[in-house]
Amino acid sequence: MLRLDKVVKRFGARSVLNAVSLEVAAGEYVAVLGESGIGKSTLLNVIAGLEPVDSGAVAFDGVELTRLDDDALTRLRRERFGFVFQAFHVLPHLSAAQNVGLPLLLRRAPQAEIEQRAAAALAAVGLAGRESSMPRELSGGELQRVAIARALVGEPALVLADEPTGNLDPENARQVLRLFAEQVRAHGAAGILVTHSEAAAAGCDRRYRLTAEGLQAVD
């Protein structure tokens, strides 16, 4: 589903990603470990086509991303990718269901379909009956569940998670990580979790460590 081949990314004279290679199949859940500032978020940006590479190749479902223009990359992210962030990025003026339904709204899906699928996605993450709740009425763990539902409501082929439990207490973090892994696998998506936490990475199918020298498999 996803292939990175000797990807190099520099910012000025500083090399952030150095000959990074990775393959992730549909249904696989992979962790990339690394300290803060090592380039984990940059790696996700490169995978999502938000940052160009200096050399190497990134291919998604057989399509080389460097061959796509900005409009095509935007459509690809909207239709095939899902994103979960540390800071939730839940819009405060929209209800839980409206936040979850945003990816479908951007695809111009019928309103009845948006409401039905948003409710189902919220139920899948344990928030049935909370469709009309506003973000200010939800806890941090519940907000991250909304973010997971939003990332998966459009049935993406690839889900990218950037430190999704960094703002949660340990118990909520464990629950959210378990739920995220279950949902990614249930949808048959390829999932990539970037984190500094060994505990967060423990539930993944494979683990890698990002260093200045590249990406190394962790036993």
Question: Could you describe the 3D structure shown?
Answer:
The chain has 219 residues and is an alpha/beta fold. Helix content is 36%, strand content 28%. The chain has one domain: Rossmann fold (3-Layer(aba) Sandwich). The strands form 2 sheets. A 6-stranded mixed β-sheet has the order 6-7-8-3-9-10. Strands 2-1-4-5 form a 4-stranded antiparallel β-sheet, covered by helices on one side. The longest helix has 17 residues, at 170-186.
Annotate the secondary structure layout.
Elements: E1 2-11, E2 14-24, E3 29-33, H1 40-47, E4 55-60, E5 63-64, H2 70-80, E6 81-85, H3 96-106, H4 111-124, H5 140-152, E7 158-162, H6 170-186, E8 190-195, H7 198-201, E9 206-211, E10 214-218
Parallel strand pairs: 3-8, 3-9, 6-7, 7-8
Antiparallel strand pairs: 1-2, 1-4, 4-5, 9-10
Summarize this structure as a short list of keywords or feature phrases:
6-stranded mixed beta sheet, Rossmann fold, 219 residues, alpha/beta, globular
